[in-house]
Amino acid sequence: MQRVLEPELMDDLGQARAYAEADFEEPNQSFVELMRSHFPHWSGSGALLDLGCGPGDIALRLAEQYPECEVHGLDGSAAMLEFAERARAASAAGARVTFVQGLVPGARLPRSRYDALVSNSLLHHLHQPEVLWTSIRALAAPGAPVLVMDLMRARSTDHAVELVDTYAAGEPEILRTDFYNSLLAAFEPEEVRVQLDAAGLEALRVEAVSDRHLAVWGVAPASRTI
Ligand SMILES: C[S@@+](CC[C@H](N)C(=O)[O-])C[C@H]1O[C@@H](n2cnc3c(N)ncnc32)[C@H](O)[C@@H]1O
Predict the structure, then answer these.
(1) pLDDT tens digits for 134-176?
(2) pTM for the complete prediction?
(3) Is 153 in contact with 188 (CB distance < 8 Å)?
(4) Separation of 11 CA from ligand 1 center, angstroms?
(5) DSSP calls for 166-221
């Protein structure tokens, strides 16, 4: 099935609220666990950047997991960052977390390079997916752990409906619609492989990790030249 684009930013307040209030405890904690299991030797010392951080739950969980880490979360949506700031104020690790409003690519960030880069569910929003990989390539310190997770494109619209009914049965309509649209906008692992190779990120692995998710992970290359 051809990719069907959805808007990049989730800047509608109702949409941001529905997303921020949804229960992503299990997938978000799994993201943190994957970070730990894929990079068991990474201590968390230094600075980590979360691209497309949305309401900030993963950024805050990572800050809690890695007590030496300074965490920056970047998102283009002011509405999402309003919820992220509220969550930050309520978190014991909030003092080590900074949320920044800006776009991938090109945002002004507090640092020019990071000791770890993560992103969850941003890739499928991007109309030009290569900007995620070139940004990671430019911002990651050599050897920095990189973990990106996203949805995988459904095989057909019927398949997307099936996935929404299976995994978002009791969710509000606004979230079900977002999920459906995202399943049509997402990439297949083979497409991501091509994107990674084109960005000079051959060393990163991409794999399907469920019937609807893919993961990209590995360490950033030594040279930042792209
Ligand atoms: C599906 S949400 C994921 C949020 C968060 N990573 C999570 O897992 O809960 C995608 C986020 O990416 C943001 N986004 C999309 N395109 C962006 C861009 N080009 N630059 C910055 N943020 C972007 C949206 O505003 C939205 O908050």
Answers:
(1) 999 999 999 999 999 999 999 999 999 999 999 999 999 999 9
(2) 0.97
(3) yes
(4) 9
(5) HHSTTS-HHHHHHHHHHHHH-B-HHHHHHHHHHTT-TTSEEEE-SSSEEEEEEE--
